[in-house]
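Hey everyone, long-time lurker, first post.

I ran two proteins through the pipeline my lab uses and got sequence/structure pairs for each. Pasting them in order. The first:
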Amino acid sequence: MKQLVIFDLDGTLLNTIEDLGIATNHALSMLGYPTHPLAAYPSMVGNGVRKLLQRALPSGMDTDEQVERLRTAFTQYYDEHCTDHSAPYPGIPELLSELQAKSIKLAVASNKYHEAVVKLIRHYFPDIEWSVIMGHKEGVPVKPDPSIVFEILTCSPTPKSDVLYVGDSGVDMETARRACVESVGVTWGFRSISELRAYYADHIVQNPDEILALAK
């Protein structure tokens, strides 16, 4: 049995795309830039808020100054509205409860800024005892750099052979590969099965029950 399961957040535990898209469009509008249809946002997310905003800006306008202005507007809005439309994927609360009942440690590793990650996890999964909740912090590389996984393993020491890393994107599969832990790609998130395969997911699952089986 695995001792620790590390989950990505957006597209894995929670469907957050509508709130992310609305917050980005709000920030774009505040600064006078054109917005995007919400359907465009799944291909923009996954590498942290800064990269999301760079992708959302018109070509040639993604300067450090403009991204920082956009990030300020985004954060102010998102901090207040990040739970307006987001929700756990079907079966996720039950999966987490079952893993916890089997004394398997649970952790979150997200490229979203740390404060928002903590808020979302505490809001949607208040009954889960997380070993580590880790979002992006200034000065720390974002995934697929494996630093966030190493920090989780420092906080919750576990042999790498006893770890599962669960995510919905190539970024997540590459993070797991670089950290030398077993990866699980989920098909209900923001990216395609072909992307998960291209990034050498060790397992690809269609529903949360399959994660429970892999953990056992």
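...and the second, right after it:
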Amino acid sequence: MESNIQTVTISFFRFDGIIRKLWAFAQMGFARRKLKRIDAMIFFKLFGSGTGEGFTPYPNTSVYAILGVWENLDLAESVIGNEDIFAKYRKFSVENWTVFLTPISSKGKWDRCNPFKPIIKEPIDLKKNMLAALTRATIKPSILLNFWSKVPAISKMIGQNENVVFKMGLGEIPWFHQVTFSIWPNAESMSEFARKDGPHARAIKSVREGQWFSEELYARFRVQKATGTWGGKSVL
């Protein structure tokens, strides 16, 4: 792996039992300090999730995730495989899954910066390669109720889509800082969902017309590989 090709990882963890769930919740504060000490991490975020597949305003105390940005794949694999904080997450969780991604496009800001650096030289067949989409937004308090009133319909729509390989709604701060992550077989299936008239398209129109977000970012990635299982199976 060339040193100039950035790798982005999202590690998902599922917890069971009161003690382990409490540990995971506490890590939303404690793990931040430990992750800051990892020099190899260019950027990181800790996430909670919503119930179901995460696309609800109701917190899910069982599922948490860590996003990391790295200089290359080898470095990402080494740190995630050996660093103590990741080892503890794996130890306390009943299931974990990490997906390794290469940024191919990224627009917008996340905490006043764009942490993703899309590849420039490497050719990608968008019809054949499995792709991931990530959206991140800070929701304005004044439209909070309006925003969440539209989410169930979008969740149902994506849940019924046979093409989506994986989907999860995540949050940095409950209700206000939201992240959606999904994996698709190719660019065509991803674009078809985005363009199709329905709750999702109407919600995007409302966002644009009403300026619902104070900050937003949209990124696409090529899926490199994944380790672990989710839902008792190898997702990819």
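Reply from user beta_strand_b:
Welcome! Quick read of the second one: The helical segments are 18-36, 73-82, 84-92, 144-159, 187-195, 199-210. The longest strand covers residues 213-228.
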